[in-house]
User: Which sequence fits this backbone?
């Protein structure tokens, strides 16, 4: 646990420094900086592809002994109703709560 | 003296403008506290991530990647990548407040979030004048709500035993699914976006993840899929200029 804890603090400090730099450098550079259009467009779409990748990471499982990653049907079954309710309610909290409830129900039935 | 009291009033007005953000931060920050504590992180660690790092989705990514036993360099690179959009947001705010004192600007810049930037943009479009004190009020109220909610809910989460039994460990997966859903919906609602291109972009990103995970690992898969998926969308939309 102590190695884990040390890892945690290293990550906390490095991530904070990197994030602070990202937030602060524009205030120092603002006088003589102009973004190329393609970079602006790239940053515009990055949240979409980032969230897509982080989401599907939990849908595919890489298993030893299988050449291709397999679909995690338990996760998929729990997430579909959560996404429908979240879409109708337009709420992040709704996705999380319905997802948790569906997963608890699936495990209870197993 | 008059200037001071009006500065204080602007600060209070900024805090009031943060109200919708505070409500959102209490629910998402609360979710972060419950998820992180159910995944074995201590209340103190939750407080540090929320109060010191203060970067919503990056915090979820850090706990997720730590659980996936990702390498330190991969985690920091991912945090850099996911927070890089703040560079543009900061640039925008920095241009608006350019003549102000640097120390005050740096304090403000270090607390910029998607949400406070969103409120800033709305006020800007409504052509309402904004002062530094107003921005400080907005930022500081949001910041306190964020770490207050995550720490408070982490304390509650610690008292729940066997979180797996109640599906609580699934909250992180659901959180990213929800963030994906709301991001996609906001792109769909944007009249400047082609829905077909968005759907193609999501499909290509998913395929890139699948292929990269097959050859390498899930962590590398996320990085490759996010970067090349976005580059692909940039190529598809190369005629469109996006001003954020």
Assistant:
């Amino acid at each position: 646990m102590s190695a884990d804890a040390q890892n945690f603090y290293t990550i906390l400090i490095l991530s904070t420094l990197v994030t602070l730099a990202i937030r602060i450098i524009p205030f120092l550079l603002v006088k003589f900086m102009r973004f190329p259009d393609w970079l602006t467009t790239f940053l515009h779409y990055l949240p979409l592809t980032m969230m897509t990748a982080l989401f599907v990471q939990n849908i595919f499982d890489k298993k030893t002994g299988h050449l291709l990653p397999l679909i995690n049907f338990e996760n998929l079954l729990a997430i579909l109703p959560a996404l429908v309710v979240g879409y109708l309610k337009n709420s992040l909290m709704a996705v999380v709560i319905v997802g948790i409830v569906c997963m608890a129900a699936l495990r209870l039935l197993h | 003296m008059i200037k001071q009291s009006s500065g204080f009033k602007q600060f209070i007005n900024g805090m009031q403008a943060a109200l919708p953000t505070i409500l959102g931060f209490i629910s998402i920050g609360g979710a972060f506290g419950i998820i992180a504590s159910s995944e074995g992180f201590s209340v103190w660690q939750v407080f540090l991530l929320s109060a010191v790092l203060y970067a919503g989705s990056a915090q979820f990514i850090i706990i997720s990647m730590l659980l996936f036993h990702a390498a330190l360099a991969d985690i920091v690179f991912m945090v850099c990548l996911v927070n890089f959009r703040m560079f543009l947001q900061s640039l925008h705010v920095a241009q608006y407040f350019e003549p102000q004192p640097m120390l005050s600007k740096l304090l403000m810049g270090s607390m910029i979030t998607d949400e406070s930037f969103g409120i800033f943009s709305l006020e800007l479009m409504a052509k309402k004048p904004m002062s530094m004190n107003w921005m400080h009020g907005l930022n500081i109220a949001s910041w306190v709500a964020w770490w207050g909610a995550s720490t408070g809910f982490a304390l509650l989460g610690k008292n729940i035993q066997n979180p797996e039994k109640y599906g609580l460990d699934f909250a992180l997966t659901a959180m990213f699914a929800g963030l994906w859903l709301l991001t996609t919906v906001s792109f769909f609602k944007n009249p400047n976006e082609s829905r077909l291109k968005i759907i193609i972009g999501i499909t290509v990103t998913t395929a890139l993840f699948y292929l990269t995970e097959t050859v390498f690992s899930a962590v590398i898969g996320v990085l490759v899929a996010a970067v090349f998926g976005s580059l692909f969308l940039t190529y598809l939309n190369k005629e469109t200029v996006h001003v954020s």
Q: What stands out?
A: DSSP finds four helices and two strands in chain A.
